[in-house]
Structures are given as C-alpha cells and as structure tokens.
Automatic annotation (TrEMBL):
Taxonomy of the source species: Bacteria, Bacillati, Actinomycetota, Actinomycetes, Kitasatosporales
GO molecular function: electron transfer activity; heme binding; metal ion binding; oxidoreductase activity, acting on diphenols and related substances as donors, oxygen as acceptor
Enzyme class: oxidoreductase
Pfam family, one: Cyt_bd_oxida_I
Transmembrane segment boundaries: 12-39, 60-81, 93-118, 130-148, 187-208, 220-237, 326-347, 359-378, 405-424
GO biological process, one term: aerobic electron transport chain
Protein's UniProt name: Cytochrome d ubiquinol oxidase subunit I
PANTHER family, per the entry: CYTOCHROME BD MENAQUINOL OXIDASE SUBUNIT I-RELATED, CYTOCHROME D UBIQUINOL OXIDASE
Length: 459
C-alpha cells in the first residue's frame, strides 16, 4: 500500500489536473453552441453582425478547445501514472466509456473543427453551418460520456466483480446509472450557464468602455436571455441532485451541511470544523433555515450530523462545506443578476444601466467558480472512496515513492500555471483588440471557383 503522503500528493495532482481541464469544457461547450447559433442566424439573415460575432468568439473557442483536449488526455495518462491499481480494477468499465468518448465525440469534433475554423471562404455557408453544429454536437457527446463515467464512480451499477476487476454485467445500467440522470442535466446546465456568463461579462465590458456597441448589445442580449431561462432550471436541477446524493451518499450531505451532531435546525453560513474532536470551533447560522431547506416548513427538523458516519468513512468537512457554499452562493448571485437583467430588459434599460454592466464584468468567471465548487463538493464529499462503496482511494494509488509523486506534481503545477497564464493573456489581448469590422459578403464569394470550358480544355 502507498504511503499516506503519496496518496495525498496524488490526490492533489489529480484535483489540480481536473480543475485545469474543467475550465475549458466549462466554456467551450456553450461557446460551440453559440457559434453554431450565430452562424446559422447569419446564414438566414445575411446580417454581418452575426458574422462578426462568429469570428470573434471562434478565436476564443479555438484556443480553449485545444487546451481542453490536451488537458483531458493528460487526465487519462494520470490514471496509469498515479492510479494504476484503480485503472486495473475499473478498466473494463471506464476504459470502454472513455474510449466511446474518443470514438464518437473526439472523432466528430476532429472531423469538422477544421472546416469551422478555416473553411470560411473555402466552402459553402451551409457547409460551415453544418460543421459548426457537428462540433457543438461533439462537445455535447463528450459531456455525456464523461458524466456517465464519473457518475458510475459516484453510484456504481450494472457490474460484477471478477478476479479483482469490475466488469459490465448490464451496459445500460453502467452507462445510465441512477446518478447520471441527476448529474448530467445539472452539469450540462452548468457549462451552458458558465459560457453565458463569460460571454455576457465580456459584452458588458464593451458597453462600459463604449466600444463595439452593436456587437456588445446583441451579445449581451443573447447571454442574458439564455441565463433568464437556464438559471431557474439549474437551481431546480441542483436541488434534485443534492437530494439524490443525500439519499445515496449521506456522509457527503452531512459534511457539506457542516454539522457534527444531529441537533441543529439552522443553516450554517460559516463553520470552523475540528475533525479530531468532532465539533465546530465556530458556527454562524441562520436558525430554522436548514430544516426549511430540508422541506420541513415548521423549521424544527434537525439536519443530519457527520458523527452519524463511522470515523473511517467520513469525508473532509472543510472542502465539502466550503466547496458547496462556493457553488450555492455563486448560483444565487447569478440567479439574482439574471433576474435583474430580465427586469432591465422589460423596462428598456438593459443597454444603459452602467452599474449593472460593471457588476456583470466582475461576474465574468462566476460560472467557473460555481462549477469548481461543485466538483470539489462532489469529489471530496465522496471520500474516502474513489468508487463509492467499492474502492478506497488509499487502495487505488500506484506503488510510487513520495519523491516520485512530489516530482510529477511539481511538473504538472508548473506546466499548468504557464498554460493558464498564456490562455488568460490571449483572451485579454483578443478582447482588447475587439471584434473585426465585417462587411456583408456576397453569397457568390463562398461558391467554389469552377473552371470555364475553355480553361478546362487547356488543363
């Protein structure tokens, strides 16, 4: 068995890799759909504003997409590097699921992204629109397979244990396990919302600076329209997911509620846990609200405490509690801003409310913060299991020395820090440069040049 230091270093390495990777799909899934929508709108209306939007967001999408693919490949590599025991045990199930992502999603995206990025002026507009939709479809397929694999780790189903490995007994139950039906819509809404905040925040920056106003108004209008629809759905989906996880992983709910004893009906805003003594050294709460959120409208029911779970099966309350609060409070702030945007639109002040625009600029990364908090809650709240109820994290690590694990962690941290800095710098430079001016091109410009009969005769 690996030392506890090796386990912790390997956990940190995978957590940093996962957070780095998730940053890009959290934006590119929604951006790919935006690109397909605005190019289709351009195809139907010939309004050059939509073409301007397509070209601007295509630049940001392309770099994020490339980094996301590279980071995702590294995660697969780490399964063998740091988590060899885990990879051996679940390879017959998760290897197939991840392989399906490669075959369906990556191949689809790879087949069409070149046309979307470089086909303008070389292929017909309808082909451009089709390629854009195929890339968007590929990102959705990728999200589906990854959520299926991760959800199986949260709530494994349809398997049989044979010679130390978990093998599929019923692939339908494996792929569409009970957790998938809750976590997939929750995550899909999250990435769409995250992209909408990113797009809306940058559009608001142009409004604050009074630059590219037509581009900024149409972009902001689209982003807030999407958020007005999706935010209420996301709050409902998040609540359903929390209820499901509370029933299937009660220790996770106990940890992110921040109570040790089952004697509190309040909702904890701040806690300082003391895991060694099984108590909170500090707790700031709203009385009765915890019971009300738990659907006891009398406000008297007690919220379950973590002492109900045996000590060797308790997750880390620090990470689960504050990961959940980061996600939940950010989601509430996003909902409030989306509602304010709807009110401003109805009052005809959406494009003139300067304070609102400045707040939107500050909230540009809000979706990323919420997604990161959600994944920290989901993954640390599942501990000490890497596959819930089947494989402990301490049994899943490769037989590495602490020095080897520390060296690989330092290497990954260095590379990711450089890549994030380069990516942020690229986005800042692209935004400051602004969208290119676009004239409405003639439809004939996109037609392939065919030789005339005399030219063809002379070869």
């Amino acid at each position: 068995m690996a030392s506890s230091a090796t386990v912790e270093l390997s956990r940190w390495q995978f957590a940093i890799t996962a957070i780095f990777h998730m940053t890009f799909p959290a934006l590119t899934v929604g951006l790919s759909i935006l690109l397909a929508v605005v190019y289709t709108a351009y195809l139907r209306t010939r309004n050059p504003l939509y073409l301007q939007m397509f070209r601007f967001w295509r630049k940001i999408f392309a770099v994020g997409f490339g980094l996301g693919v590279v980071a995702g490949t590294v995660m697969t590599f780490e399964f063998g590097l740091n988590w060899g025991s885990y990879a051996h045990a679940v390879g017959p199930i998760l290897g197939v699921t991840i392989g399906m992502e490669v075959i369906t999603a990556f191949f689809l995206e790879a087949g069409f992204i070149g046309i979307m990025l470089y086909g303008e002026g070389r292929v017909r507009p309808r082909t451009m629109a089709f390629a854009s939709w195929m890339v968007a479809f590929g990102t959705l397929l990728s999200t589906t397979w990854i959520l299926s694999a991760n959800s199986w780790m949260q709530d494994p189903a349809g398997y049989a244990e044979v010679a130390g490995q978990f093998r599929a007994r019923d692939w339908w139950q494996v792929l569409f396990n009970p957790a998938f039906s809750y976590r997939f819509p929750h995550m899909l809404l999250a990435v769409l919302i995250s992209a909408a905040w990113f797009v809306g925040g940058i559009a608001a920056w142009y409004l604050v600076r009074q630059r590219s106003l037509a581009f900024a108004r149409r972009t902001l209008s689209l982003a807030l329209g999407v958020l007005a629809v999706l935010m209420p759905l996301q709050l409902y989906a998040g609540d359903e997911t929390a209820v499901f996880m509370g029933q299937h992983q009660p220790a996770k709910l106990e940890a992110f509620e921040g109570n040790w004893k089952t004697d509190n009906n309040g909702y904890n805003l701040v806690v300082i846990p003391d895991p060694g003594r099984g108590r909170d050294n500090l707790r700031i709460e709203i009385p009765h609200l915890g019971a009300v959120i738990g659907k006891d409208l009398t406000g008297q029911a007690h919220v379950p405490g973590l002492l109900q779970t045996p000590p060797d099966q308790r997750p880390n309350m620090w990470s689960a509690f504050y990961g959940f609060r980061a996600m939940y409070f950010t989601a509430l702030a996003m909902f409030a801003m989306a509602f304010a945007g709807l009110v401003l639109r109805l009052r005809g002040r959406l494009f003139t409310a300067r304070r609102f625009h400045r707040l939107l600029v500050w909230m540009t990364p809000a979706g990323l913060v919420a997604i990161t908090g959600g994944w920290i809650t989901a993954e640390t709240g599942r501990q000490p299991w890497v596959v819930y109820g089947l494989i402990r994290t301490s049994d899943a690590v490769s037989h590495l020395s602490t020095a080897e694990a520390a060296l690989s962690l330092a290497g990954f941290v260095t590379v990711y820090a450089v890549l994030v800095a380069v990516w942020i710098r690229y986005i800042v430079r692209t935004v400051k440069a602004g969208p290119e001016a676009v004239d409405a091109p003639s439809p004939a410009r996109f037609l392939p040049v065919r030789p005339t009969l005399p030219e063809a005769a002379h070869g």
